């Protein structure tokens, strides 16, 4: 009798193994091995979805469009429809760029991104977090695979993430939680195509600056002047890594918007027509209005800090606003300026940092505790500096500058 039971158990075990081999439910080890093969054989992919940030008072949604082409071409488009803001992160043969097409603005970085860091919407980042976490948790949800793993992002408050994959290992959803298990960032993919074979023009900087934030897959024709003027002047006023050499050599707010001399001193201006003086006043007022609408941090550090003062300043030849925050232990300064030459490109020498809704640059050296994060969003350049805050906290504060104003 016992032999029959043992034989029956052995048969059932064999049948279970056979069913699994023939397409039944896979275990964690099998899925992990498959993912390793998939990510190492990737030629290209194209994903679209919605990213929600819960780091402020109200959730903020961004439309995400990410494309990859082997070996190291990336294009990430982040759009905040509510604010009508689109930013693009590119990696191509020329380097790593952050673009704001609507403003014809480019920042160029010296970086090996995303090898040294990744974003929640990059497939390689998600798979890497699964492969590297030996304490990963695995579950099967209908026909989908769910991994619960450690989060490895520059925001130290992000502790874990859950990743949903379909049976073909395409990402469906990602939830990144803090130490209190509250979901801070989520991404839901509504499209994801392996082997998408994008044209190289998709990763071309000029193509992405030319009128549309979604470049055509067709090769640009000869003589394309879509981005003409981008290299006209390498303005020193917009360099993220430059703390004080931002001489405003162009568009110096002389007020002559059209760049023409008035015809005669005796010619009376037409009623309602802007004179050079009124144009200057209007230009300066527009700058002040834009700076007044600039965003403030929603997170103010690990201990209570408050705004101590806010002053109009001139920084690197540019009008700006300097806000100083302080508390019992920590303090930081946030400078906001609006570069006049929006077509100039800049090069940073610091480390790229992921702010989720955009990319910034971390500046500092080992000999000094002072750290600065510089980034541009909707035409405003932000410069966050502290000599007391840990780097992870400084990144977290910068990431929170994307909601409604706190003042």
TrEMBL record:
PANTHER family for the chain: SPORULATION PROTEIN YDCC
The protein, known as: Outer membrane lipoprotein-sorting protein
Annotated Polar residues bias: 204-219, 231-242
Residue ranges, annotated region (Disordered): 200-281
SUPFAM superfamilies on file: Prokaryotic lipoproteins and lipoprotein localization factors
Keywords tagged on the record: Lipoprotein, Signal
Annotated source species: Paenibacillus methanolicus
Matching InterPro entries: LolA/LolB/LppX (IPR029046), Sporulation_related (IPR052944)
Signal peptide: 1-20
Transmembrane residue ranges: none
């Amino acid at each position: 009798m016992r032999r029959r039971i043992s034989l029956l158990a052995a048969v059932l075990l064999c049948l279970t193994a056979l069913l699994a081999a023939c397409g039944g439910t896979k275990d964690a080890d099998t899925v992990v091995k498959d993912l390793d093969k998939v990510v190492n054989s990737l030629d290209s992919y194209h994903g679209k979805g919605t990213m929600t940030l819960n780091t402020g008072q109200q959730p903020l949604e961004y439309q995400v469009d990410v494309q990859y082409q082997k070996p190291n071409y990336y294009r990430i488009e982040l759009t905040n429809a509510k604010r009508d803001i689109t930013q693009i992160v590119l990696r191509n043969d020329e380097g790593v760029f952050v673009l704001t097409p609507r403003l014809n603005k480019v920042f160029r970085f010296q970086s090996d991104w995303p090898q040294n860091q990744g974003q929640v919407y990059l497939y390689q980042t998600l798979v890497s977090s699964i492969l590297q976490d030996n304490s990963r948790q695995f579950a099967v949800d209908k026909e989908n695979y769910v991994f619960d793993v450690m989060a490895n992002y520059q925001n130290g408050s992000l502790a874990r993430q859950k990743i949903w994959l379909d049976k073909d290992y395409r990402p469906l959803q990602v939830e990144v939680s803090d130490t209190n298990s509250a979901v801070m960032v989520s991404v839901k993919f509504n499209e994801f195509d392996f082997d998408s074979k994008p044209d190289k023009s998709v990763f071309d900087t000029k193509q992405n600056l030319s009128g549309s934030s979604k470049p055509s897959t067709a090769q640009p024709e000869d003589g394309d002047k879509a981005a003409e003027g981008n290299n006209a002047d390498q303005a020193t006023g917009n360099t993220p890594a430059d703390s004080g050499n931002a001489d405003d050599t162009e568009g110096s707010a002389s007020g002559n918007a059209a760049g023409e001399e008035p015809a005669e001193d005796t010619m009376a201006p037409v009623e309602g027509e802007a004179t050079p003086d009124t144009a200057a006043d209007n230009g300066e007022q527009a700058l002040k209005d834009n700076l007044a609408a600039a965003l403030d941090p929603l997170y103010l550090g690990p201990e209570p800090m408050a705004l101590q003062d806010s002053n109009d300043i001139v920084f690197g030849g540019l009008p700006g606003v300097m806000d100083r925050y302080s508390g019992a232990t920590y303090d930081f300064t946030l400078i906001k300026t609006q570069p006049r030459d929006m077509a100039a490109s800049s090069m940073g020498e610091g480390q790229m940092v992921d702010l989720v809704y955009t990319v910034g640059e971390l500046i500092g050296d080992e000999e000094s505790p002072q750290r600065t994060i510089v980034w541009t969003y909707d035409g405003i350049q932000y410069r966050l500096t502290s000599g007391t805050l840990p780097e992870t906290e400084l990144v977290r504060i910068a990431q929170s500058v994307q909601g409604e104003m706190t003042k």
